[in-house]
Amino acid sequence: MSKAYIKIIKMPVNVIEKSSPYPDMSDTRYYFKAGEGLENELFLDKGTVKNIFPYTMQDIYSTELVNKKVKTVVLENKYIKAVFLPEYGARLMSIYDKTKKKDIVYNNDAIRITNIALRNAWFAGGVEWNSGMRGHTPFTCDNVFCEIIENGEEPVLRFYEWERIRKQFFEVCAYLPNESRQLFVKVRLINCKDEENEAYWWSNIAIEEKLTTRVITNCDDTYAHNYSGEIVRIPVPYRGRTDITYPTRNQEAVDYFFKTFDDRQRFVMTAEDDGNAFYQTSTNILKSRKEFVWGMNMSSFNWQRALVGTNNAYLEVQAGLANTQMEYLPMPANAEWEWTEAYGMTTVDTEKIFSDDWTVAREEGARAVESELNDEQLLKAENEIKKICKKQGELVHKGSAWASLESKINYSKWYDMFAQIPLEDEQKPWLELIETGKFVCPDKVRDNPAGYIYDKKLKALLEKCTDNWYAYFHLGLMYFYEEDIQNAKDAFEKSLSIKENPWAYYALSQLYMECKDYKTALANIKKAYKFNKKDIRILKELYRCASAAGKSDEYIKVYEKLPQNIKDISRIKLCLAGAYLDIGDIDAYEKLMSIPFRLCDIREGEASARTVWKKYLELKYMTDEMSEQEREKIVEMYTIPHWMDY
Fold first, then answer.
1. Strand runs (DSSP E) across 196-275, as ranges?
2. Would you report the helix, strand and coil content of the chain in percent, each value rounded to 5?
3. Kind and range of the H or E element at 162?
4. How far is CA 572 from CA 226, 316, 524, 578, 597, in A?
5. Are 506 and 496 contacting, i.e. CB atoms less than 8 angstroms apart?
6. 3-class SS at 604?
7. Distance from chain centroid for Cα 317
8. In sequence order, what are the beta bridge partners of 128?
9. Helix 552-560 × helix 570-582 angle, to 10°
10. What's the burial of 55, exposed, middle or buried (CB within 10 Å: 0-12/13-18/19+)?
């Protein structure tokens, strides 16, 4: 019979410190262009969010792995064992096939945190449930609710949370019937707003990458994106002379969004030369499939090592609602969307699956998947899960209390399941504001602020708190969220006129950076720095503002007074390297960079290290009289050190 249970395991983890106390005021929007002929086919960037506010960054974590107790929720029958991590967004960390004695998805041996997600912290492995917006779910390294629903011999795991930016509810229900060789996952999205909203979902599946691995799906075309900003359509399987369905034949990191057939079963498969093949299939609403590869170059190898260590490599296949991850779908007011996915292993005819004739290969993939599980069986499983999920489950893991607060601000029937959850310190000041009209200041000005939120009703209440520095700080953030820069600036300055505080200084520095008034931004971040001279987040911003203002020497002076443990942090050292080059001190740069150090929080796609290296080459070897061709030769001659190549 199937069983569900809690198990605490020990595994190596990069421990994340408490989320940043500072609001995210960055502008991370990146716009894409539809290639020729795709203007009316792709609806790019509608619904793109400016940043992750009101969530805060998870940007400080240990550089070394430590053994840590991790809570898992397990669903198991005699054929399959599935392990979920409720502390990490319900990540399906592993699915083990007991018959084949093989992991179905890539099971990472550690939680290696790197800077990839919207909130920074992210790790590779298993299946990640991405909702809300492009850039990985805000919950990828956060708690979500988990219930075990008893159903005789076939229990169901229900994971759920409320997403604060879109104001959407998502639910992931895992089901493993007694005799099933596949894990079923039913997903439900609910638009909790009384107006149209943007919907986004991608199930992000990690698979072990081997030289012979081939990705198969029901398609003849793909939308390709290789970080150039333009989406183009190319035929499958060849892009030039490269068969893109073999991940290790792609030299650069690249996304391929497969345009699956509307009249065929949706699936994606990764096949191996021993005849074993992973597959994911779903009901039709989850229409798209994707292949992501890191590529075969030094930058890619560095990323792989950072994410999975030295023994393995992995690729990703994904399944999503829209054609590409750069699109959002319009979701009607109070709409509910649901679909069912299945994960399993099958056996394929290797001669056919690795055929040079793409039609032969994809038809073999389709045959193998449908022989295991067809559309009719998927719908039957979905209906069974729906019946089971009408029952009340036992809550075995708690998520956040933000939906509980929302139920008290803007009541909706969707919030009933959250209404009785006790509020925590992040939410309590907001409830008091609602009930009394008063917004209580922290005991000490350095104390971390209450959790951030944007709400028009709360904004109106804050506007009445005319003698409160803390209210003006939060009010300024709400204005800034609305892109009302002048009122935001006035609110932050009013906060400081009532009481000097680091939070309003920080916010003003971010506001002035956006307005390109870099000297004023620097002046404000320096004042914020005086409140805590060991604050790593402020130090990063201090360099960003100083460099933009042409005052990098001021960052160098600050760095020289830091304790050694902070000086040794890789991001702080990289900022110092940039500062030395900003002032033209090549000798100091060479001395600093002569001993390699791991760039442990470099961001995926971030060009900081490459920019530093290029500037070094310009100062060291280039002159104003050189032609562009001569400059390019120098760049080719002096390649970036491998440890800086990300």
1. 197-199, 201-208, 214-217, 219-225, 230-235, 238-239, 242-243, 254-260, 266-271
2. 30, 25, 40
3. strand 156-163
4. 30, 32, 20, 10, 12
5. no
6. coil
7. 16
8. 204
9. 140
10. buried
Q: Sort 101 into a burial class: Cβ within 10 Å, 0-12 / 13-18 / 19+.
A: exposed
Helices assigned H by DSSP within 596-641: 608-621, 628-637
Query: pLDDT per residue over 296-340, tens digit each?
Result: 999 999 999 999 998 789 999 999 999 999 999 999 999 999 999
Whether 35 and 47 have beta carbons less than 8 Å apart is answered as: no
Q: Calculate the average pLDDT of the chain.
A: 95
pLDDT at 85 over 70: yes
pLDDT digits (tens, 9 = 90+) for 142-178: 999 999 999 888 999 999 999 999 999 999 999 999 9
Q: What are phi and psi of 234, to 5 degrees?
A: -135, 155
Determine the Cα–Cα distance for residues 350 and 271; give it in Å rounded to an integer: 8
Spell out the residues 6+ positions from residue 110 whose beta carbon is closer than 8 angstroms to its own: 11, 12, 13, 65, 309
Q: What percent of the chain has pLDDT over 90?
A: 90
Report DSSP state, residue 152.
Answer: T
Nearest one of 321, 319, 371 to 345, comparing CA atoms: 371
Q: Locate tokens 């440890």: which residue?
A: 643
Q: How many angstroms separate the CA atoms of 204 and 129, rounded?
A: 6
Give the global pTM: 0.96
Give the length of the chain.
646
Candidates 339, 337, 334, 338; CA nearest to 414 is 334
The dihedrals phi and psi of 249, each to the nearest 5 degrees, come to: -90, -5
Tokens 């994606």 label which residue?
268
| Tokens 């001993």, located at residue | 595
Helices and strands (H and E) in the chain: how many: 18, 28
Q: Do 555 and 579 meet the contact criterion of CB atoms below 8 Å apart?
A: yes
SS3 for 173-193 is EEECCCCCCCEEEEEEEEECC
